[in-house]
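G., the chain you wanted modeled:
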Amino acid sequence: MYKHLKTATAAALAVLAAGSATAQVNLTAETGGPGTVVHLAPASLVEYAAERGIANIQLKDGQTSTNYVLSIGEDKVDIGSVPLILPFLLGKGVGPYSSIDKADAAGLGANVQLLAPYTLGVYYLYAYDAKGFSSWDDIKGTKILNGPPRGAATTDSRVIIQALTGLKHDEDYESVTVNWGQAASAVVDGTADAAMLPELFPSGRVTQASAAGAMTALSMPKDAFESDAVQKVLRKPGSAPYRLPISEAQGLGDNWTIISDDDTFRGMAVLGGLVGRAGLDEGVVYELVKAHIENIDNTKAKAPFARLANFDVLDDAVTGVCTTGIMYHPGAVRAWEEAGYTVPACAKL
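Predicted structure as tokens:
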């Protein structure tokens, strides 16, 4: 649960924003469900924009990112909180956007610009201690929750497992897929023996699951993680290698055992960010991003998972913007650079 920020419906957030009599513009924003970084970032921005009289932002939560990324590209929505792989796919006219003419897709993708990056989650393997997982080889012959029935998350989960172990889904292990809202219960009720999902330290799903019993989280093996073949997987658009001191990973809680080759936890980060349509007023974007930057500590304090979401990191090795081709909005560039950050040259217009 967020601290100092109640999970809100779109209507409640609109009321919050409308409380600022000095707000100059009305904006629309869409995001996913509460309890995640993808929701926390825009919900916090609504609050900060209202407090400073920058804008009234009407936020719709519980939306599908594949859809609202396209809406931003089409100038139908102003702001969104998204996995960065989606603007990349939109610009290429592939994946969920394969029905769009390639020339049109390129223009739509270019119309989605970055305001502020963050880390959505980190892929790691986790299971109840009673399931006996002590290495990645224990996946063989078991049921692994890979993600939802559709989407990049499930594909990524399967690809990582195969890259690390050589095990193939539905040949060497049974791949379980459920909707995101059912993921925690699929682990709790034994539908899956283990999960390979993007999480933080902690995140809502792992917190819910570990309330029912002691659990183990497995870092990626060091040698495999550092191999050229696995690094290629980890550095694909929308992803990046992720390293964390074990002491930080222990943020999962006392009910967890962390297994790693050394004092570092390794995984694949899923990269995300607040994005906006290119036509947003540069001055408004500047003020919004400035408010975001100056409240990063406040945002981190709102939820246990937020401290490791990299809200204050622009380094391309962490944000991966260069592989996605997304550009920062000029107003965002000004705000970040005035605050002393270095915006990667690859992502500046």
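The radius of gyration is 20 Å.

Shout if anything looks off.
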